[in-house]
Every structure is written in structure tokens, then in C-alpha cells.
Fold these 2 entries.
Entry 1:
Amino acid sequence: MKRTCARPGCQRHAVATLSYSYADSVVWVDDLAAEAHPMIHDLCPEHADRLRVPRGWERRDARVGSVVGSHQRLSA
Ligand SMILES: [Zn+2]
């Protein structure tokens, strides 16, 4: 079963899963979860990388092979 990005209008393949830890105000970016879940969102690589978190929240990238601290910005 194919999973696509949860962003409206985005049909790309999902490779990452987003989840919110409300207790810690942390947004986690993980490798794609094995199963879809109502509380998590699947994202394509581009949207996962460009993800912005609400004020006061922290984005933590737990993906295997992710480059921690890289903030590449697409100029598009
Ligand atoms: Zn996307």
C-alpha cells in the first residue's frame, strides 16, 4: 500500500512520519511509520525537510541517516 504526503496538493511519496509530543512541545520527524495512524502525518522528503514548527516548539529529526543541524533552504 502506497502512502503519499499528507500536505494538500502534494502527491509525492511519503518517506517520513510526523508526530507531535504535546507534553514536551516537540515535533518528531521519523522514518515512515509501518502503519498509518490518526495522530501522525506522512510527509514526502521535501515537506519533511521544510517543516516548520509552531512557536515554542522544537523539531527533532530522528530519521536514520538524517543530517542533524542541516538547514538547507530551497530557494524556490
Ligand atoms: Zn509533500
Entry 2:
Amino acid sequence: MNNFKLKKNDLFVEDISIKKLAGKFATPFYCYSSNAIINKFKKFESPFRNSDTIICYAVKANPNIAILKILSNLGAGAEVVSVGELRRALKAGIKAKKIVFSGVGKKFSEIKFAIEKNILQINIESIEELELITKIAKNLRKKVQIGIRINPNIDAKTHTKISTGREEDKFGLNIETAKKIFLNYRSNPNLDIVGLSVHIGSQIMSLSPFKKAFLKIKNFIKKINKNEKIIKFLDLGGGIGINYKDEKIINFNSYAKIISDISNDLGCKLILEPGRILVAESGILVTRVLFIKKNKKKTFAIIDTGMNDLLRPALYDAYHDIQSIKKGIGRKSLYTIVGPICETADTFAKNKLLNRLNTGEILFFKNVGAYGASMSSSYNSRPIIMELIIHKKNFSIIRTEDTVLNQISREKIPSWVSKIK
Ligand SMILES: Cc1ncc(COP(=O)(O)O)c(C=O)c1O
């Protein structure tokens, strides 16, 4: 079902009019379709339903507690990369035994909290991290389940800034180091090293890099498990891309097939960590045109949302389609769509052909449910914006807009400053 429909000079998200919402609430705001999330999760999960698999949603894609709760109700676990994400996942009711903790730079306090909460697994990314976990676990008299994140040296053929599986990337450990870890740490009474994990990047559009990476891991598991079943958990990460602009996406059944082909004779429990694919298409960013400005080269449409609300275009040159909710008539024009932030990087589209835009007109960005709100900031002292979710005929605010007063209230002027002349 298509949860976003343009009709009668309006956009409907499920049964709710965006024109009405934009009349009620100040723009910009994020707006999600709950059905889009529910349907995508069910579709993704379906080929894995009869296998021993935990779908650990990558919280970084969109950490809103309401979205976590929806996914938790559908049976998802969580993949987290900070204690903040871990707290959110627990608060949303995700069982600790369905949570894996990844990331190259976990702090002492974060590791301690994760161990105290008895989460399923900590995926380690360095020997120093493993040493620290050992110490903390010993002090707490706990045995911690460990996964070793492998860097398979595979190029995911995605944007370089979201490639994570090449040797030059900071993520994971090579197979030689992983072997040493098994030799040197396996008998440690505070560690239960039973997992391997791999995540080679995000917005991956072809199965081939997955296949190559998974095969490397499979061969390694076969060696390690030759005489004794040491590896019991195989975490294959996330990374499936979505269609932002005329891109052909990976078929879930084909993805599931390569996973079953590599894993069916290993007897491991599977963990998958999808993020973007579950939520990206569920979200739009609603904005208004502030001004139209022409110079000799361009016509700018200056809108009321900026790179602080949606960073992906500035950070990765990422494409997000932008449309008006109005059905266009008459001549089209080329617009460069920019935000109000004092950076030239605050550009969302160059020379985009759109129906004639007017000041105050409502536009929306598509496919911003993942890495949209989650990457937002208050740069230029712009408050973090509101998030709404729609469920059929109802809408709910799932994050209120921050305020500048709130931001300022956390800042302090030391007394000595007043003496400066
Ligand atoms: C370890 C790990 N797992 C899963 C994900 C989710 O990736 P995606 O949103 O592309 O599915 C990420 C994202 O970078 C990650 O770092």
C-alpha cells in the first residue's frame, strides 16, 4: 500500500492531510507513516520467519522512542552504538537479550551499563576494547557474550563516507587478529566469545559485496568451528539501500537466499541489523518556501528547513526528492533549493525543474525517515524540530520542537566574564 498520496493540491499521509497539519503546526517538521514502518518490517522479516534469526533494528537510523516501540511490538531487537541508544531501546521495551552493542569507541561507563543490563552481545572492534570489557566484567563478576566484528576488506561500492568494510576503514578487526583473540582470550572466565559480526556499509545496492563478505566470514567460521562449535552467533549487520533516485533495490528474498546459502550448514543463530531499509521510506520532511530570489545565474527557492534538520545532502551529497503538495499547472522553472543556514553546503537541490513556486508554499522531502531526524543538530541556534507520526486517521506528536530558551538555559556565564572590559 502506498501511504503517501498526492490528491487535490494536498499530500495525504495515510488518511491525514499535510496541508491541515502545516496549518496547525509551524514548519518544518518530520512526519512518518506508521503503516510504512509496519509493512516494511513485516516484508523484511518474512523470509527469515522460519529461521533462528533476531532482527536487531539499527537504532541510529531513527532513534525516536515511538518508532522503537512499534518495532519492538513487531518483535525487533536493537543494534545500538551508544549508551543513549541502549537506554532508548530498553525504554521502548526491547528485551536486553535482543540487543547488540557495536561501535569502535565505547566508553567505560557505556560498557559497564551494557554488562549490568545483561545485553545479548557486545561486538568488539579492538583488542584494547576487549581488555577493558574483561576488566569491567571481572569487577562485576559477570561473563559477557562477545562478538568479534570482522573487517573483511570488501568494498561495499557505496558512498565512501558510509563504507565500513575496507581495510583502511576504522571498523572491525582482520581475520588474523580475530584468530589471535580466539587463541588468547577464549578461556577467560569473564568472556564468552561466541559471535562474529560484519557490517560493510550502508545504502548498498547490490548483493555482490554482501555475498563476498558473508563468504569470507563463513570460511572463517568453518575453520574455527572445525573441532568444536565455538561460534554460535553470526551477526551479518545491515546496509541494504533504498531507492532515493531511480535506484534498483535489493530483493529481500534474494538477500535472504544468500544468507541461507552461507549459513544453513553452520548451525549459528543469526542476527541482522537493518536500519535504513526499515524506516527511510516512512518519513517526509515538511517545509515552506520563505523567499524566491533570482540572480543572473539562478533562481533560489529559500526554504525554512536547513542542513541542521536534514544533513545528508550536505554531508554525502545525498539526493532527496523534493515536491510541492500542490498539483502544478502552467510553466515550470528551474530552482536551486537552499536552506537558511550560513553555509553554501546548505543546498538541497540544484536546478530542479518544478512548477512555479510561491512564497509560503508547502514542499516536502521524501525518504527522510532514516538518518534524517537522527542526524539533526541545532546549528545556527535553530531548535531541533518536531516529529509527528500518523496512524490511519490519527496523528501524534512523537517529539516536540525544542526551544531556543531551552538551549540557552543549559549555558552559563561564569562570574569572571562580567569583569572583562
Ligand atoms: C554496525 C552497524 N549495523 C547496522 C547499521 C545499519 O545500517 P543500515 O542503516 O544501512 O541498514 C549500521 C549503520 O551504519 C552499523 O554501523
